[in-house]
Automatic annotation (TrEMBL):
Keyword set includes Cytoplasm: no
Domain Nucleoside transporter/FeoB GTPase Gate: residue ranges: 42-136, 219-315
This protein's record includes keyword Electron transport: no
Keywords of the record: Membrane, Transmembrane, Transmembrane helix
Transmembrane segments: 47-70, 77-96, 292-313, 325-343, 382-400
Organism annotation: Thermaerobacillus caldiproteolyticus
InterPro entries tied to this protein: Gate_dom, Spore_IM_YlbJ
Name assigned to this protein: Sporulation integral membrane protein YlbJ
One Pfam family of this chain: Gate
């Protein structure tokens, strides 16, 4: 009975989505173009180098070396192997959904167990510093200093999630066999590096080609989800479902003494973080602190678009998505609370004539990360060209692979 109800619900949802596309073709096209622009201007050129380098580091055994060196840190704190430190670092540097992709890769290579993969995916996915400082704080809020609050609350909150998720699957882990671990030693680390490289007998050219193909395939999937959820978000607004949900959300915001004007931006952010954070920054009837708290929650939650990307990646490796979703809820709560707690210690408040709240940081006043804004502008200007060139290379690699298969 439950499966039948699920089938009917999914069929009805897809049918309504198709009908909405027919009723609002112009709005759907505009939303689709907006999602496409975000993907090929920023997402693709910013994530591709990290994905390719990560594949190469895994192939050459550098990740195994780091695993031995980071074992004394990652195992006691988060109850994951040392290779999780590499996933954690790359996830913070490159942003969503790099942590999920690398976790799935390590799980497929049997370097981590199922429970360890679920723990690792829960706290290694986060927004990258480029998006937090370049897009949100500078681009949307026009305040480079507020990025310090966003970044600290975001990354500290993710650490708190990792510390809590170490208890995930503890009862199951007792009955399973303990995995082999290497003692901390530079000699052991380099021995593991050498053994891993010898096991991987692929030539450099083939390894590089596989890394490029795998990375671009993942980014194509990510682009599809970005466009899809951009359209869904717009259609929900057009059929007035967003307004109805916002009416209910107003009561929840009122519990936390947040203005009702933030309800629609929050709903947009729950689907797609870029649009949501931009709308939050434009709300006039809200103090900067209130907008910062809500923005931190949205950045940590990730949005359904990002979560769909992660769910697709984890599903390919047979890793459960539910622990990741629970971790995102915890991360959102931690980030929002940390934003509130860090606001007074790091900022000096003063009122302006129009009684709106603004802020000036106590430190780093003259050292705002303006280079991030320049990098963001570089991506938006040359990102499409980089994407087109990379897609052309991808087509050439696929054609070469197919031709070899036909000859064989």
């Amino acid at each position: 009975m439950k499966e039948r109800a699920k089938t009917v619900f999914l069929a009805l949802a897809v049918t309504l989505f198709a009908a909405s596309l027919i009723c609002y073709p112009q709005q759907s096209l505009e939303a689709s173009i907006r999602g496409l622009n975000m993907w090929w201007e920023v997402v693709f050129p910013s994530l591709l180098p990290f994905f390719i380098v990560s594949e190469l580091l895994i192939g050459f055994g550098v990740v195994n070396l780091l695993g031995v060196l980071l074992e004394p840190l990652m195992r006691p704190l988060f109850k994951v192997p040392g290779v999780g430190g590499f996933v954690w670092a790359m996830g913070m540097a490159s942003g969503y959904p790099s942590g999920a992709k690398l976790t799935a890769r390590l799980y497929q290579e049997k370097q981590i167990s199922t429970i360890e993969a679920e723990r690792l995916a829960s706290f290694t996915n986060s927004s990258n510093p480029l998006f937090i400082f370049g897009a949100v704080s500078i681009g949307f809020f026009h305040n480079p200093h507020i990025g310090i609050i966003f970044a600290l609350s975001h990354y500290i909150g993710n650490i708190c999630v990792g510390l809590l998720m170490r208890f995930h699957g503890k009862s199951h882990e007792k009955t399973s066999s303990k995995r082999d671990t290497h003692p901390f030693s530079l000699r052991t680390a380099f021995r593991v590096l050498h053994e891993t490289r010898l096991k991987n007998k692929q030539p450099l050219g083939k390894l590089l080609g596989n890394a490029v193909r795998s990375s671009i395939q993942t980014l194509l999937m990510i682009g599809g989800f970005i466009i899809l959820f951009s359209v869904i978000n717009k259609l929900l607004y057009m059929v007035h479902i967003t307004d109805r949900i916002a009416f209910i959300l107003q009561y929840i915001l009122n519990i936390f003494q947040l203005p009702k004007e933030l309800s629609i931006p929050v709903i947009s952010g729950l689907f797609e973080i870029t649009l949501g954070t931009q709308m939050i920054s434009q709300v006039e009837h809200a103090h900067l602190l209130e907008k910062a708290i809500v923005t931190s929650f949205i950045l940590a939650f990730g949005g359904f678009s990002v979560q769909a990307q992660v769910a697709s990646i984890l599903a390919e490796a047979n890793i459960r998505f539910q622990p990741f979703f629970i971790a995102r809820m915890m991360h959102g709560c931690f980030a929002a609370c940390l934003t509130y707690l860090l606001w007074k210690p790091l900022y000096v408040h003063f009122d302006t004539v129009d009684k709106s709240m603004r802020a000036t940081p106590v430190f780093l006043t003259n050292h705002a990360p303006i280079w991030l804004l320049e990098y963001w502008q570089f991506l938006t200007r040359y990102g499409p060209l980089i994407t087109i060139i990379c897609l052309f290379v991808y087509v050439l690699l696929l054609a070469t692979k197919w031709r070899k298969e036909i000859v064989q």
